Each structure stands twice: as C-alpha cells, then as structure tokens.
Amino acid sequence: MPxxxxxxxxxxxxPTGPTNSVLDVPGVGLGHTTVHxxxxxxxxxxxxxxxxxxxxxxxxxxxxxxxPAGGAVLNGAGExxxxxxxxxxxxxxxxxxxxxxxxxxxxxxxxxxxxxxxxPEVADDVVxxxxxxxxxxxxxxxxxMQVTGDDVRAAHxxxxxxxxxxxxxxxxxxxxxxxxxxxxxxxGIGTASRTVGDHxxxxxxxxxxxxxxxxxxxxxxxxxxxxxVVSGPAxxxxxxIGLVVTDAPVDGAACARLARRVGLGLARSGSVAHHGSGEIxxxxxxxxxLDRDGTPDRTALGGRALDPLxxxxxxxxxxxxxxxMFTSPTTVGRDGHTSESLHxxxxxxxxxx
Length: 353
Prior knowledge:
Elements: E1 29-38, E2 48-57, E3 67-76, E4 80-81, H1 83-89, E5 91-92, E6 96-100, H2 104-118, H3 122-125, E7 130-134, H4 149-162, E8 181-182, E9 185-186, E10 189-196, E11 199-208, H5 222-225, E12 239-246, H6 252-260, H7 262-268, E13 278-285, H8 307-326, E14 331-332, E15 338-339, H9 345-352
Parallel strand pairs: 6-7, 12-13
Antiparallel strand pairs: 1-2, 2-6, 3-5, 3-13, 4-7, 8-9, 10-11, 11-12, 14-15
Keywords: Aminopeptidase, Hydrolase, Protease
Protein name: D-aminopeptidase
EC number: 3.4.11.19
C-alpha cells in the first residue's frame, strides 16, 4: 500500500534519503517475520495470531565495536531491555528486537542465542540484548506464545540481508507491527529518513498509540472531522517504540537527545502520551564507534551542530507515524476485532479538501 508521500502528503522541508527509511544509514538493516494465522484455540490449534518480530541491525560488528546509544522516555508504561545499560554506558552491542508485550522474554532468549552463536566470548562477558515491546492483544491472541525462536532468527537474517538495499523496507502490518493499532486505525511499522549535509538521520517506529479524534495528518485535524467507527470493542491507547539511527559522529549523550525528539514528531501527529501508553525511544550513532572500554574513535558532534539532526528526527518521526498507518490494510483479528486502514476513501477525500 502507498506511503504518505505517494499520496501527496509531504511532511517538512528537509530532503529524504534514497529509500526514505533506516536503510539509508550505511550498514543498517531491517528485517521482519510476520505471524498471521487463523486456527482454533488449543488443543485443536494455536489460536488467532496477528503478531511477529522485527529486527534492526545497527552494525554487524557492534559487539566488538559498540555503537553510541542513549534513550528517553515520554511515558513509561512499557518495557525495553538494554535501556538502562545504554543510558549507563552510552553504548549498544546488539541489534534491536521489536515484538509484542507477552513475547518479550521469548524474543530475548533467542536474541541471546544469536549473540552467543556470533560471538562465543559473550558467555564470559555477558550481553544484554535490546528488546522492546508494544501490546498487540486487541488483534492477537496473546494467551498463546505465537512467536518462536526460529521466527526471531528469520527476522535477524532478513535484517542482515537488507543492508545496502536500494528498495524501501516493508512497512505497516508486518513483523512486530502485524497486530498494532494507532489512533483507532491500523498501525505498525513505519520509517523515514532525512539527509543533513553529508549525514543521514532516520527513524523507525512501532506505532500502537492514540485515539481516533486526536489524529492529525500534516496539520489537518483528521480525527475530529471523521465519523466514529463502530467495529467491536475500542482499542485502548497503547504504546510506541521509537528508534533513531544516524551515521553522524554522535556520542551517547547526543543519542539520548536525538531520541527525545521522537516525542515531538509523535505530538505533531496528535499524540498526548496517554496514561497507559509506553513511549520509549532509543537513539544510536554509527558514525562514531567505541572500543570495549567505551573509548570513542573520533571527536563527537555537539552543541548547535546537533540542531539539524534534531529537526530531521522530528520530521522523520511524524512521517513514520503516517507511513505505519497508510501502508497497513484493514485487519481483522481475534474475536472479530478490527483495525481499519487509514488508507480509506473518507480520509483521502478529507485530505484532498
């Protein structure tokens, strides 16, 4: 399904990268495993699954040469393993894994196994994979552990294979985004990028937040102008995981500041960060690398030199919200619960007006 720009909806004035995604940052990869099935409840089957796992590879050698990292929390009703160590050490050593709330532990186990297979010395040094979640229980039967270790491995392999691709990655109802809802519509995976001089900054979102009347599209209060949709129980305001990655030489402190700006992009789309929502953000920099003791290999950008990167994050985050929704089809999940696609005649007519 089309992205926002393909529908004539342009966010901001900064130029995008070639794929307008996280793949525009050299060495970065994004892969998904989508789990979508309709079976009877156990013991006859495995139930209704609308879930999956997505993996963001930051750098293939991140364990031996950690990347600077830092995080920010807008509202903390969620979980992200590795968040505390990123804040303490200012670095990350593993890919970032995204999945649904109840399957975080299962994905964490597989992430540890992947790290051990690639670097046996992890057993003597201990690594804490970065695994973050949003709740997809509105569409997915989370009483069943639907994601397997093989699903995690497949998403990781797909992420490695995607590095350097000239094609935009899959977005919307794929991977971890399969069962997510956003502003009362179908949400999921969204990504966008901006170029800043010789560098690129990109945002990847897992969107699962907001209520219908709050939605703003490119400054238009769409949610307040659309009639309500009655399609079973309403999806409560959920969460958003936001990941920023740039090839600019930034340290852990700057990564945290970049991550914080994701919240401004969400606000432009209408988010107010509800009580039960977990807006958790992480930033990563691949243009400056660290040794195992945390010593940087070059001088980091700082001060006002970060302002263009901040602007890029805000624009890319706002656009990534829209892409996560416009690229998602209407999805029916467990018990007939439905999340309507934002790519609908009513919404498009309103935007044209």
